[in-house]
Amino acid sequence: MKYKRNKFIIDFFRVYKSNSKYSMIELGFDFSISEKTSKILLKLKRNLSKINTPLLGYIWLVDKGDVYGNMHFHLVVAIKKMNIRGKKLPDELKLTFKSKKIHSSFVSNKPKWTC
Questions:
Q1: Which of 103, 66, 106, 104 lies closest to 83, judged by CA?
Q2: pTM value?
Q3: Which end of the chain is more exposed for a tag (fewer CB within 10 A), N or C?
Q4: Cα radius of gyration (the chain)
Q5: Distance CA 25, CA 19 (A)
Q6: How far is it, in rounded angstroms, from Cα 113 to Cα 65?
Q7: Which pLDDT tens digit goes with each residue over 36-57?
Q8: Contact 8, 15 (CB under 8 A)
Q9: In the 8-state DSSP scheme, what is residue 52?
Q10: Half-sphere exposure (CA, 13 Å, Cβ side) for 2?
Q11: Domains along the chain?
């Protein structure tokens, strides 16, 4: 099962590896925010449409925290290259759900995902 998961992750990053063509954004959220990635994806797609940026692909996984053992999601989305100074996310990509903040940032460590 772990092999199959890793293969999906490696394939995703292989397809969207070009930093000159694609930007990747990682979103992290607790089960307490939502137990369905589809709800977060729907909100993200709506916000991306506000800035005329289609979602090209995504991959997600469930993780259990080392310290507190909390179950949480990691979601990585691929979009067309965003040329943004200072590497700050646009406000449309800073999400909240049910008044709770969802961590979002550009993926800066692709090799960490493919280990």
A1: 106
A2: 0.81
A3: N
A4: 14
A5: 12
A6: 16
A7: 788 889 999 999 999 999 999 9
A8: no
A9: T
A10: 3
A11: 2-113 (3.30.70)
